[in-house]
Write a structure and sequence with these properties.
It is built from 21 helices and 2 strands. By secondary structure, the protein is mainly α. The chain is rod-shaped and about 110 Å long.
Length: 567
């Protein structure tokens, strides 16, 4: 070949060989990456204008890249921050459910207690005036202890209610025996006969069952909402491991380094990364679901057997019958007390008679549940019902929200990876980032939980070291679930015997539904009259009858108002 031809061909061939290289250089421009990187708020001084060799990269593929070492570090921290925000956003529903419903239920129940106390006080002041005001601390103490129990105080409901009835018996015993003077020691002796004589009939036993079970359910339910709120808040604040951070960076921002800032991760690729990063949270799911089931059981109790309206009418009738029974057996009760505690001393200044209101009917008649009060007391009762119905609606709302929160922790990866801001979706499996290039993701999806991540292809997970913090939350849920189950059965876990025996010494009845022991059944005690002197009995009969009838009327009002609280 002549030399001049060779001189022409060689430069031309060199020019032709250089054309693809020029096109290739144009394709490796980092302009798109610079725009996306700047949109994240980072300085563009870190990023090159065209791809550079990637031997310096520690996480992303060490090929030609648009990322410097500084960029990889910043994007790695950005991926960690975005992951933490994603988990918090995704768990927002369950967290707000417990926060808002706890606040609402707590406000309603406190208002119910306040209105019940006000209703009782208003009725008593109007009906019995000074006599109630002189003894109002008995009822004030009752409400104080009920509020203290509800707010978590160390109150044994059974002992507290027994003490209330004993104190009420002491006051009433003095009223039905005004001709005697009773010392503190004597009245203490009287209170010891409360269980034996059963002066109030079966009412204390039934009200004890209703009050303890209702308050145990309410307090445990609000405690459950508190625990659910705290666990959800704590678990949603994740601290990704170094292995998780590497996987997040590779998934979210290595496309930037490869010059593909608009290509999003494949859905299945995202699932494996999230299952590895949230493996411990998924292990919370089993105990969480048991906790939610127990909360739903107690919510059913609050709607059903512990509904204050569902027991209002029959209790009204039973209380009126119990008061009549006490009226009819007052002399026998007094005689038994005098036999056991001794004959009391006569009062130093005994009035021969007590005046009664002119319009007062001396004969007590049974209370008719259809005759509702129309006075201010009736208005208070209507207010109580309004509050309770509002709380019932709140319980129903809480139940629906609780059902939606089941399996929330194991489904967290799926919820995050469905977010169109995160992945390319399930319909774009070929044009997505698979961790190396824009292509289909081939590895299989891992199962849920820590032990199933042993072969996770994306996240290095040490399955031999469960997260201590998550295990603490699992234990908190387990303890609360046991409390809820006890509350469902009417038992107060705070006062149960810690022995291995299933029966406890708690304030709850422990009975299932309405099948309860009958150790408090009323037994009428027949006893001789207190004083055999017929002349004294005949001379004071009219005054005693008037005084006792006034007392009976007062007691009717007191107990009828009080029982509305108990429901």
């Amino acid at each position: 070949m002549p030399s001049w031809i060779r001189a022409v061909i060689l430069p031309l061939s060199g020019l032709l060989l250089s054309l693809p290289a020029a096109a290739d250089v144009k394709a490796r421009s980092c302009n798109e990456v610079r725009q996306a990187y700047g949109a994240k708020g980072f300085s563009l001084t870190d990023i090159p204008y065209q791809e550079i060799a990637g031997e310096h990269l520690r996480i992303c593929p060490q090929e030609y890249t648009c990322c410097t070492t500084e960029m990889e570090d910043k994007l790695s921290q950005q991926s960690k921050l975005e992951f933490e925000n994603l988990v918090e956003e995704t768990s927002h529903f369950v967290r707000t459910t417990f926060v808002s419903r706890h606040k609402k239920f707590d406000e309603f129940f406190r208002e119910l207690l306040e209105n019940a106390e006000k209703s009782l006080n208003d009725m008593f002041v109007r009906t019995y005036g000074m006599l109630y005001m002189q003894n109002s601390e008995v009822f004030q103490d009752l409400f104080t202890e009920l509020k203290r129990y509800y707010t978590g105080g160390n109150v044994n409901l059974e002992d507290m209610l027994n003490d209330f009835w004993a104190r009420l018996l002491e006051r009433m015993f003095q009223l039905i025996n005004p001709q005697y003077h009773f010392s503190e020691d004597y009245l203490e002796c009287v209170s010891k006969y409360t269980d034996q004589l059963k002066p109030f009939g079966d009412v204390p036993r039934k009200l004890k069952i209703q009050v303890t079970r209702a308050f145990i359910a309410a307090r445990t339910f609000v405690q459950g909402l508190t625990v659910g709120r705290e666990v959800a808040n704590r678990v949603s604040k994740v601290s990704p491991t170094p292995g998780c951070i590497r996987a997040l960076m590779k998934m979210l921002y290595c496309p930037y380094c490869r010059g593909l800032p608009t290509v999003r991760p494949c859905n299945n690729y995202c699932l494996n990364v999230m299952k590895g990063c949230l493996a411990n949270q998924a292990d919370l799911d089993t105990e969480w679901n048991l906790f939610i089931d127990a909360m739903l059981l107690v919510a059913e109790r609050l709607e059903g057997p512990f509904n204050i309206e569902s027991v209002m009418d029959p209790i009204d009738v039973k209380i009126s019958e119990a008061i009549m029974n006490m009226q009819e057996n007052s002399m026998q009760v007094s005689a038994k007390v005098f036999q056991g505690c001794g004959q009391p001393k006569p009062a130093p200044a005994l009035r021969s008679a007590r005046s009664a209101p002119e319009n007062f009917n001396p004969r007590f008649r049974p209370y008719n549940p259809e005759e509702r009060p129309t006075t201010a007391a009736g208005t208070s009762l209507d207010r109580l019902r309004t509050v309770w119905r509002t709380m019932q609606h709140s319980v129903t709302d809480i139940k629906e929200k609780l059902k939606l929160s089941k399996k929330v922790w194991s489904t967290l990866p799926y919820t995050i990876c469905k977010d169109e801001r995160v992945t390319a979706g399930t319909s774009n499996e070929e044009e997505c980032w698979n961790g190396h290039s824009k292509a289909r993701y081939l590895p299989e999806i891992m199962n849920d939980g820590l032990t199933n991540q042993i072969n996770n292809p994306e996240v290095e997970v040490d399955i031999t070291r469960p997260d201590t913090f998550i295990r603490q939350q699992i234990m908190a849920l387990r303890v609360m679930t046991n409390k809820l189950k006890n509350a469902y059965n009417g038992n107060d876990v705070n006062f149960q015997d810690t022995s291995d025996e299933s029966s406890g010494s708690g304030s709850g009845s422990g009975c299932m539904d309405d099948v309860c022991p009958t150790e408090f059944e009323f037994v009428t005690t027949e006893a001789p009259a207190v004083d055999p002197d017929r002349r004294e009995e005949e001379s004071s009969a009219a005054a005693a009858q008037g005084s006792y009838s006034l007392l009976s009327w007062s007691l009717v009002c007191m107990v009828l108002a009080l029982q509305r609280l108990y429901r």
